[in-house]
């Protein structure tokens, strides 16, 4: 008699003990059970099909906990012919057993060898054991409706007019042509003639439309035309204020390209640079000065040789940013200082004795027909404000800095722009991707891998400096490099490919793109090095904060990722605007969670329409990377790699904790306008901890950040305590409680780099 008995593993685990139960004879037929048996037999390719009808009579099928999921053969049930005590022939099973045997033999030999060398053998990890909980969250729905519409379109070039059409020096035209600037962009065509006439202007045009040349060309042309030629001791004639150091250097570079007149001197001042070098540069004399507000004000107030009484052109580039970053006070103070120094200079006691008032004197030298910048004696000061976004703040600034002005908009007069509408270059393809929180990290990694294979130059915007530091470290060390054996040990103990002979520690470089980082807390020299490295690189990935969102021009950047949502709509526009510059094509992708999907609808109100991108589109790259066939396994393997790295590497663990903590502070500080979309109350901090590859609970992470965990040193360790009081029980210092608002989080990005000295209180 051939009868089969059913034996299954209760936990569905290969490692667990096999529970054998002999079933009683069936009381009634068990049709469903027989079908299942047939299926199992077929699945497992048992060559000799047993007599199922007979079996039905003989054996009652149990109701084992059959999972609806597809699970590998060895995890479900095993058929054993108890009577003959020989398993049914299964080639797969035989193969795997053979491989296990071979692997065990190899391990034994290796262990013996290690023992001989006096080392401890390390256990081989059982990969199958770890079924990551990454995919437990499967019930979220997307509800984004009507995501197409007509966005506001601005033309970059509207005619064939060239720079030679303008009334400027022929050398400037030839310098421009040498740099491939021949045709005037729309904004240049509208703005340059007005600025050349000396008018105050407020300019709005979309990102990457050439606003920088719109004001630098007239300035250079005016200063080179002054006769007799400008002397260095005549001081600053044109002052250009920009919000970030990178933008200051970039603007300086552009002016140097078009201004080859030896007698016109260009300089820059920005936080983080050597103050004494700047001082001596100012003492020698500079005519066109590009500066960030903090450092500029510091020199105005403390460098006696720095004179600003001759400034006849003031440019505020990215004017709205200069206001909303807490620079408002600095800008107001700078403008007041310019006015004051002019007045001081005009103070002439002899003229007063003669009965002349300063006003009359001003009128005497004023010549309306001459551009004030061409006339060193002109009492007028021209003001130029520029931005891609107009905010209420700009209107205030315009009112404060100039009496009257011309408004120049690069959009056609016919297109009625509503102040709520955002104008984004039509060459930028805007996309969003909705991911589960736990999937964010490996999804970002898979997008980066996929895009770097396509030779893209990528910018990834993150919320905080700590996030940038952490992801930079993680990706450079654990994504760009992978263990050679990563895809070889699979399915439990079964070694599928074991001929390579490589050690488990050996790594190979799997990404062809280098990682760079940029944020406001970096040292200036490092900041310069990283940014210029990224600009020069043929392909690369720049992880950055919003410090790179304004004005930065990397023409080849063709992919922008917003890993964390922007805090304002203007930030969205400027981040996206780092790609698709001057009619080049580019793509901007924003990562959103299910709770944040409303942001897509929010953008529609501003006439911005995004297309959906599915994360599974990048999964084949993830599978390739991890040498896995299934997407989930590849994702789990990568997440596991990150988590293991974070838990083993103390420095990385600390970075991860600080990154998570800074992220949660950032997320908690969204302005009221967006707080219903990026809602901290809705956040599952535990899931976000996974998205930082941390295996601990959020409360433990918070303790690490506060320095309350014994074996993890706080990041900013007090060196004095560490050196002198090592033997005493050290009480970790708690950071003072601070009111957090979005400005305080972001202003550090734009600080002048100078230490703020507290005034001593008088007793
Ligand atoms: N007339 C032109 N022809 C071709 N390219 C140009 C021209 N003018 C400027 N460019 C190029 O266009 C790019 C963008 O210029 P620019 O940085 O001035 O833009 P922007 O409007 O100031 O952008 P943002 O608002 O982002 O600061 C630069 O790479 C610049 O070299």
TrEMBL record:
Q: Does the keyword ATP-binding apply?
A: yes
EC code(s) of this entry: 3.6.4.13
- Region annotation (Disordered) maps to 17-70
Domain Helicase C-terminal per the UniProt entry, residue ranges:
443-626
Please report the stretch or stretches of sequence annotated as the DEAD-box RNA helicase Q domain.
161-189
Renumbered to this chain, motif Q motif spans 161-189
Listed under GO biological process in this entry are: regulation of gene expression
Query: What name does UniProt use for this protein?
Result: ATP-dependent RNA helicase
Q: Which organism is it from?
A: Cryptolaemus montrouzieri
């Amino acid at each position: 008699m051939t009868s089969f008995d059913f034996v299954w593993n209760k936990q569905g685990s290969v490692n667990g003990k096999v529970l054998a139960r002999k079933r009683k004879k069936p009381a009634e037929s068990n049709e469903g059970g027989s079908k299942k048996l047939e299926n199992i037999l077929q699945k497992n390719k048992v060559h000799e099909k047993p007599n199922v009808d007979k079996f039905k009579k003989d054996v009652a099928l149990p109701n084992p906990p059959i999972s609806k999921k597809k699970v590998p053969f060895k995890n479900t049930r095993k058929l054993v012919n108890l009577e003959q005590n020989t398993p049914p022939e299964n080639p797969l099973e035989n193969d795997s057993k053979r491989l296990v045997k071979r692997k065990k033999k190899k391990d034994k030999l290796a262990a013996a060898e290690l023992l001989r060398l006096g080392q401890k053998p390390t256990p081989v990890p059982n990969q199958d054991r770890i079924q990551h909980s990454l995919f437990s969250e499967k019930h979220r729905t997307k509800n984004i409706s009507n995501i197409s519409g007509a966005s506001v379109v601005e033309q970059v070039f509207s005619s064939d007019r060239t720079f030679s059409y303008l009334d400027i020096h022929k050398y400037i035209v030839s310098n421009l042509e040498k740099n491939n600037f021949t045709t005037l962009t729309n904004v240049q065509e509208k703005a340059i003639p007005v600025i050349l006439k000396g008018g105050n202007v407020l300019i709005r045009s979309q990102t990457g439309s050439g606003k920088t040349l719109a004001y630098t060309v007239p300035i250079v042309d005016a200063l080179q035309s002054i006769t007799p030629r400008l002397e260095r001791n005549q001081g600053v004639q044109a002052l250009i204020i920009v919000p970030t150091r990178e933008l200051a250097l970039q603007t300086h570079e552009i002016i140097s390209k078009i201004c080859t007149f030896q007698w016109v001197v260009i300089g820059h001042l920005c936080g983080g640079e050597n103050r004494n070098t700047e001082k001596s540069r100012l003492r020698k004399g500079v005519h066109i000065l590009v500066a960030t507000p903090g450092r500029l004000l510091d020199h105005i107030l403390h460098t006696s040789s720095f004179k600003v009484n001759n400034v006849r052109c003031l440019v505020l580039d990215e004017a709205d940013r200069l206001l909303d970053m807490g620079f408002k006070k600095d800008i107001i103070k700078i403008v007041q200082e310019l006015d004051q120094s002019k007045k001081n200079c005009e103070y002439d006691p002899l003229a007063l004795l003669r009965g002349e008032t300063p006003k009359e004197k001003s009128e005497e030298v004023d010549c309306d027909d001459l551009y004030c910048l061409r006339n060193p004696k002109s009492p007028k000061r021209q003001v130029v404000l520029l931005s891609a976004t107009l905010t209420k703040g700009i209107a205030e600034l315009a009112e404060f800095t100039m009496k009257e002005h011309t408004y120049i908009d690069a959009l056609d007069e016919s297109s009625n722009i509503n102040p709520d509408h955002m104008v984004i270059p039509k060459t930028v393809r805007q996309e969003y991707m909705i991911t589960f929180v736990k999937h964010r990290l490996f999804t970002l990694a898979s997008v980066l891998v996929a895009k770097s294979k396509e030779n893209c130059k990528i910018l990834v915007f993150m919320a905080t400096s700590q996030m940038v530091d952490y992801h930079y470290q993680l990706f450079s060390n654990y994504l760009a490099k992978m263990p050679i054996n990563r895809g070889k040990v699979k399915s439990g103990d079964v070694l599928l490919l074991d001929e390579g002979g490589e050690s488990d520690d050996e790594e190979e470089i799997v990404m062809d793109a280098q990682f760079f980082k940029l944020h406001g807390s970096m040292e200036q020299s490092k900041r310069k090095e990283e940014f210029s490295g990224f600009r020069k690189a043929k392909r690369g990935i720049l992880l950055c904060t919003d410090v790179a969102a304004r004005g930065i021009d990397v023409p080849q950047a063709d992919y922008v990722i917003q890993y964390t949502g922007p805090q304002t709509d203007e930030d969205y526009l400027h981040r996206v605007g780092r790609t698709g510059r001057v009619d080049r094509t580019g793509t901007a992708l924003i990562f959103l969670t299910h709770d944040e999907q409303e942001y897509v609808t929010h953008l529609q109100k501003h006439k911005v329409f995004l297309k959906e991108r599915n994360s599974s589109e990048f999964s084949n790259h993830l599978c390739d990377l991890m040498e896995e066939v299934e997407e989930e396994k590849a994702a789990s393997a990568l997440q596991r790699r990150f988590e293991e790295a974070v838990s083993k590497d103390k420095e990385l663990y600390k970075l991860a904790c600080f990154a998570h903590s800074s992220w949660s502070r950032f997320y908690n500080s969204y302005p009221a306008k967006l707080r219903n979309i990026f809602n901290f109350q809705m956040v599952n901090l535990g899931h976000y901890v996974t998205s930082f590859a941390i295996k601990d609970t959020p409360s433990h992470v918070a303790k690490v950040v506060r320095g309350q965990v014994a074996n993890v040193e706080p990041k900013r360790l007090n060196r004095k305590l560490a050196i002198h009081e090592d033997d005493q029980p050290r009480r970790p210092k708690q950071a003072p409680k601070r009111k957090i608002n979005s400005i305080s989080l972001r202003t550090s990005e734009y600080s002048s780099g100078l230490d703020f000295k507290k005034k001593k209180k008088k007793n």
